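Researcher: Here's a chain I'd like modeled. Treat it as a single chain, no partners, no ligands.
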Amino acid sequence: MADNRPIGVFDSGLGGLTVVKELIKELPKEDIVYFGDTGRVPYGNRSVDTIKKYALEDEQFLLTHNVKLIVAACGTVSSVASDTAKKLPVPFFEVVSHACKTAVNTTKNGKIAVIGTSATVSSGQHKAEILRLNPNASVITCACPLFVPLVEEGWYKKEDAIVLETVKRYLKPIIDFGADTLILGCTHYPVLSDAIASVLGEGVALINAGTATAKAVADFLNEKALYSENGGDHKFFVSDKPNFFKEQASVLLQKEIDDRLVEKVDINSL
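Model: Modeled as a single isolated chain. Structure tokens:
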């Protein structure tokens, strides 16, 4: 039986659009409701208690739109606050486990690197999951706290000297480590893929958590026969800067976003 309710997706800001992009590819007929908490971005330098508070508020907002499942398109929430989903009345998908599985299946030399926000790296969730899947793997993790602000400012082209120098400084330990696989442990980071790839070279596979997660969502909907027969409408909500969000969303999703599809909401008043 089809289920025409929308898929709910949330993130601290723009980064979750990398997951939305993959969901649209996998599930073009699904309606999507997206919430980007642009007024409180980034989440990665907050305390665990604050991240959990924000995650709960984001999840509750999406539930008001009658979503059939929720995707935490945020590496930080997925790493330290996925337990907030335990009482949700709908299925919940995080991005950590799917990225780790893909990385383990991709690596040839067993050396896997993970980059993420400070909170994501401190949680140790990626490393623990990788070693659970392959106890013989070698893992290095690096926090890259400046990546999210760069993306949120719209600075992500590899030709930008500031972007390139920042990427070089953060990724040096990974180059020295000799990893052949890199998990982009924050959903903002795929936006910087061109710059990251130019620094690491062709020999390092970049794992986009959004691709793996979108496939998992598609498999679930098909297995449970909960797929939609709609036309694939997309609605975006943000807690700040709707015009800037619209401009960047049009670039990241590679399609024009109508002004009427982006709405500012006061997440604290809900």
